[in-house]
């Protein structure tokens, strides 16, 4: 049975509609293709149910396929990762055609092309924007506002080293279901790092363990970029001895000796290591 049927995270059906790909597989009053729209807020929580727990966050400009809207909530599929859930209706908007992504952990949006002008908010790493040509170091954004050119990268940009991306988030507060520069969890950090390199990466650690890389034996020498998995947790190696991970012990993205993390996690958190995976094209 496919994930689209067996795993509620990917099951694009509720009591009102189902995606057309599920016709004949699930019972639904209506089957719809849906419409691809984009997040119009700096970020928005994708919730398990209307007003329910957060599963992940959708960043500004990122596409979602809207299957249904009711009572202020949109039932959507996250185009980037296939996750299904509910966004506030006012978090999705116009027909922006992104040209750039935010390349810094956080970046301000200004009212004028001037660092002394009032800022109207911040966008997080990998948010997508439609930006005009640079003038005096600033880009005008579709929909209003300006961003410094130093904080933007072209839409097709790819990071050479995913660990360097993860290192940008050192000190970022831990947030369950978070994947922004204001708060991130363990698997959200890994997804951001690998997406920046152009790698396909699921959102949650159980799926990352299943889908990513090739196995490395527990106890074998580690190297930069290796992923270490526990039950419901994941971190990435900065070097042979140092683990970087978003975790609730430090309540932030922290770097620590890997053996210290292994001992503590075994004693009081998630138990023993369940897998080590190596991404073949990681430096």
Provide keyphrases for this structure.
283 residues; alpha+beta; six-stranded antiparallel sheet; five-stranded antiparallel sheet; 5 helices
Short recap of the structure:
With 283 residues, the chain is an alpha+beta fold.
Question: What this model shows, in words?
Answer:
With 283 residues, the chain is an alpha+beta fold. The chain contains 5 helices and 24 strands. The chain has a 6-stranded antiparallel beta sheet, sandwiched between helices. A hairpin with a 6-residue loop joins strand 4 and strand 5 (54-59). The model has no long low-confidence stretch (mean pLDDT 95).
Gross morphology is: globular
- Tally of contiguous helical segments: 5
Which class of secondary structure composition applies to the elements? alpha+beta
Quote the average pLDDT. Answer: 95
| SSE ordering | HEEEEEEEEEEEEEEEEHEEHHEEEEEHE
**Which strands sit side by side, in order, in the main sheet?**
19-24-20-21-22-23
Strand content: 25-35%
Taking pLDDT < 50 over at least 5 consecutive residues as the criterion, the unreliable ranges are none
What is the share of helical residues? 10-25%
Radius of gyration: 20 Å
Largest sheet: 6 strands, antiparallel
Total strands: the figure is 24
Measured between the Cα atoms of the first and last residue, the distance is: 36 Å
